[in-house]
Amino acid sequence: MTAIPVEHGVVALLLICDDCGRGLDGGAVREEWIVLWHRAVVEGWTGRDRAIGPHRCRSCA
After folding, report:
1. Could you give the number of structural domains in the chain?
2. How much is the pLDDT for 4?
3. What integer pLDDT is reported at residue 34 of this predicted model?
4. Are 24 and 38 in contact, with CB atoms under 8 Å apart?
5. CA 42 and chain centroid, separation
6. Are 18 and 1 in contact (CB under 8 A)?
7. Of 29, 46, 47, 49, most Cβ neighbours within 10 A?
């Protein structure tokens, strides 16, 4: 999948797992892609370091 912009009062990013569809979002803060990706890797996500994917959550990695 990809990282897509979503509205939560401010623009944030949502990272979506290509296998199960689980999402990881930037929360209420406006995160740049590289900040969200770094947090995802720390939480066990795998994949390309580009917003276009593919990406897999910890459970699917």
Report:
1. 1
2. 64
3. 86
4. no
5. 12
6. yes
7. 47
Residues in contact with 58: Cβ distance below 8 Å, sequence separation at least 6, in sequence order = 43, 44, 45
Instruction: Print the domain residue range for 8.
Output: 3-56
pTM exceeding the 0.90 threshold for the entire prediction: no
What secondary structure does DSSP assign to the chain, as a single string? Answer: --EEEEESSSEEEEEE-TTT--EEE-TTS---HHHHHHHHHHTT-EE-SSTT--EE-TTT-
- Interacting residues of 19 by C-beta distance below 8 A, sequence separation 6+: 56, 57, 60
Residue 43 tokens, joined = 């939480």
Instruction: Indicate whether 61 belongs to any domain.
Output: no
Q: Is 41 domain-assigned?
A: yes
